[in-house]
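Page 42, continued from yesterday. The earlier attempt failed because a stray header line got pasted into the input along with the sequence. Redoing it now with the clean sequence only.
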Amino acid sequence: MGLSSALASAMSGLRANQAALSIVSSNVANSQTPGYVAQTPNQIEVSTGTFGSTAMTTGVSRELDSYVLNQLRTETGGSGYADQMANILKQLQNVYGTPGNDGTLETAFNNFTSALQALSTSAGSSSAQTVAVGAAQALAQQLNVTTKGIQSLRSNVEQDLSTSAQQANAAMQQIADINTKLQGLASTDPSAATLMDQRDQAINTLSKYVDVRVVTDGSNQANIFTNTGIQLVGAGLASQFSFASAGTLSATSLYNVDPAKSGVGSLTIKLPNGSSLDVVANNVVSSGQIAADLKLRDQTLVQAQNQVDQLAATMASALSDKTTAGTAVSGPPAGFDVDLAGTAPGNSVNITYTDTTTNTQRQITLVNVTDPAALPLQNATNANPMQVGVNFSGGMSAIASALNTALAGTHLSFSAAPSPATATTLRITDDSTGLAKVNSSSITQTISSLTSGNPQLPLFTDGGTALYTGAITSSGSQITGLAGRIAVNTSLVTDPTKLSVYSTSPVTPAGDTTRSDYLYSQLTSAVFSYSPQTGLGSSSQPFSGNISNYLQQFLSVQSNAATQATQLQQGQSVVVSTLQAKFNSTSSVNLDSEMSNLIQLQNAYAANAHVMSVVQSMMNTLLQAQV
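This time it went through. Structure tokens are written below.
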């Protein structure tokens, strides 16, 4: 190696040291910058032919663990989901209140049943009657307040969806813009490294709101997809969420895949290719804050509303509905006659029969549905009882024909009962094949009068005047949102004596406790089945129990859900923190390492400079020798 070669090598070494020193200084300066990934110089040996080899800096490398980063983004989405669920469910617990305290459903219910029990010991006492009516009003108002709280949470979630969609849009657009800036830049370009840091930060922000899967192509373009394969960002193009808010939500504001029927805000996404998708209908997102908001708005809080609506409906029906057993028909064919006269929309006929082929007992509920647009009723698979809607006012021939068609596979037969039965009597028998046997039949009707001569009383009504009968129309069931509308019958508020007086001809004897005993028994001892839409039981085995059992059960379920959500939030926070620490251990700037690198660079720089000094001295000596 000649002096020229040595000089060239030393100079290239100085240039390499200078580039490395610049990178070290950048690392040190940005050691506290969020999202900054430590950089290292890329150096290669370059052959110069007759002059040997020199060092060349070709760019920088980012100290990035891609696997840990992808895991971190996945868990960040899970954390965004868990945080929102825990936050809202904790607020829902505040709506229910602390069990045993004033201002809770449980306390209001217990106060009402205690007032009815006290009334039975002094049925003629006007003060006891007034106290009982007041306790009923307090219970109704607590249901109203609970509904208001649940719907307020749904409205807050609706608003958060709008904010989250805007934040996600900003992150996606930033990623797309950086993709454009990176086009034509080598991944080792120092300016590209800075842009990639910014892009990673934007992707991390996006992962808080939606689940993301990142694919980087050969041209250093980050293509981002959801786990369901929906593209969020492409090369220079970004999808965009669009949210049209429905404003303040109510119990009847429910999601429907048909936009014309949906009562909640619509969330759509416009893809880079120009097409648009309904985010909910197409299951676009599965994690992140937006996914949590959608589940809370359309499922979790709707189920919470269903639970209090079911409580309100069960109380109203338990006190006002009268069930009358059908009249046995000896046959053959054997069965029962049921008189449909006076049946209100939503009232029902209940049938129990045995499928003799499998020796399985089944139940059918015939519901009086007067709105043809609401038919046929939808049943869950294996629903028990199975519901069949029919218009009881359509004439007995039409009723029997509709039922024979709808229930052809049950081997039951429906017909108009022959004389001397009334024209409104329905006969229910087997079809003479022996494949079915009718075990029992009854009809449940809502008593509308306060003095019908029956202990049943329409104490709780829909809005104070309208009877609650469970009517079903094309716009939905009367039960939806009932807890927000339930009130004590205004006629009873005006005349509390009707808590004891159930007949005016003959007049109920003074001190008669028939009605108060009945009301108390229905609320504390009678067993009812509850809709699977409450989240309790299943369609084939619905939860059953008295009203107090049901109230305690759904409050317990909600409390457990809130506890589990908080535990998940805490666990997810630990996972994210652990992954962040693991990512930082390799990607963040280590000042100790940088100081060590700085010393090495200083020594290398000094060595290269000394080589140059020696070469210069030798050249001077050589020149002097030639003179």
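Notes: The chain has a mean pLDDT of 89.
Reminder to self: strip header lines before submitting.
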